[in-house]
Amino acid sequence: MADTGKIAKNLERFAQAVAAHDRENPTHTAYGIGLAHFDMERLGLEEGEEILPGITVQADSGVSGNFRVLCDGEHEDELTEAEEQAVEAIATQAIPVFSPGRSPFEGD
Q: How far is CA 75 from CA 10, 31, 45, 70, in A?
């Protein structure tokens, strides 16, 4: 069994993350917390266990020590749109390019 203080701190962080997600994404509904399998074992949690009202623990292939808020929304579309905007902004700017090891002020 994991230390109750450690579990309490993690539950607090999970609740804060779900609240932040729901506040920033009002059209998406959070349903779970994704944890690495190692972290689930370390905390003594089981997959599918409800840790907060309506929020269950799900094993995923994430990095140990991190967790993810799982929701029914498509965040990938928002990232793609942001990347497209960044590419457009960069593509319109001219940047001078120089050969490495050669001063741009040297003659040919």
A: 24, 15, 27, 10
Tokens of 34: 């994704």
pLDDT tens readout for residues 2-31: 678 888 888 899 999 999 998 988 888 889
Q: In the chain, what are the helix, strand and coil shares in percent, each to the nearest 5?
A: 40, 20, 40
> What are the CB-based long-range contacts (under 8 Å, 24+) for 61-66?
61/36, 62/34, 62/35, 62/36, 63/36, 64/36, 64/38, 64/39, 65/36, 65/39, 66/36
How many structural domains compose the chain? Answer: 1
Q: How confident is the model at residue 87, as a pLDDT?
A: 47
Within 10 Å of residue 62's Cβ, how many Cβ atoms?
14
Predicted local confidence at residue 4, as pLDDT: 82
Give the structural domain span for 8: 4-91
How many CB atoms are closer than 10 A to CB 103?
8
The pLDDT score that the predictor gives to residue 7 is 83
